[in-house]
Request: fold
Amino acid sequence: MTPIYQTSTFVQERIGVHKGYEYARVSNPTRSALEANVSSLEGAEHGAAFASGIAAIEAVAKLLSAGDHVICGANVYGGTDRLFRQVLARLGLEFSFVDTRASEQIAATLRNTTQLILIETPTNPLMHISDIAATAEIARGHGAWLVVDNTFATPYFQQPLQLGADAVVHSSTKYLNGHSDVVGGLVLTSNAQIIEGLRFLQKAAGAVPGPMDCWLVLRGTKTLHVRMEAHDRNGRRIAEWLAEDPRVRKVFYPGLPSHPQHELAKKQMTGFGGMISVELGDRDRADRFCCATRVFTLAESLGGVESLVSHPAVMSHAAVPRQQRESMGITEGLVRLSVGIEDVEDLIEDLDQALPAA
Ligand code: P1T
Reply:
């Protein structure tokens, strides 16, 4: 097993001569093992690990300079929206938030200064799908980078670099780790300029993960394929069951043939995973439902082996401006399920006994 190199510094042979490691903000062997591991999963040459998914996204944005323009998906994790609008815009980066399901909209939003296009697909929590190959072509034609947040699909079900993306970001807090006991992030790329910039930022800005957390994510990736198959199996079964239930107004899951982008999802993904959102009608119904589930527990986050239920408007997406949130469909009645790997009959029984409360 890769040891946990619980050390901040490394003995050097003489001034200016070391054995590959000097100070753990710059690099640490456990972190290097994790970076190599997830690079390999994404088909990337390089990886850079960060202390959270948001720190990974921030590092990508910090490759840019004041005055540069970023096109970001209108529906991304609320914390990504908050980082861009409330922190990085203040420091001089410019942002446009567009519906990246329509690649013409991306093309129409390009400026001379556009350096980065960031998309999530499937999106959190509306499960919108963006065409990675088509977006990569637009980015390449303009000399901008396409970065895909692959947190929901994981490299097991979707390989953005193979479809032309320049880099992939992850919240390894979620499926990569899989056990809800770490906060972490990663950027994977084969682009020499991007990795050089990220390595510099690990050293210069320092939002790096500790060795214990890297070790836990490494342990998680050993079972990624087994867990993702189970999330996908349970996710499909539950989405189909919910879609048949008149108590649920709408089900958002790209694996359902009724999903407006099911064909695109099938084209660029090999499975659909365990994330499902449902529209229950209003806040009271959502609240009663979230209090009534017993196996699905109410908590932020996703991607662990245990099933969770959450309320995006108040939890993960509270920072998104209300009008934008509502116009997209992140309503007060929307509830998100992170379907775990428990026995699917237990999960369905739990939803069945909780739905009457809604
Ligand atoms: O939480 P952190 O590790 O910093 O990752 C941020 C992040 C980035 N990208 C996506 C798609 C995410 O879903 C997240 C975090 N999301 C939640 C905490 C949530 O409950 O949706």
Residues 224-243 form the longest helix (20 residues). The mean pLDDT is 98.
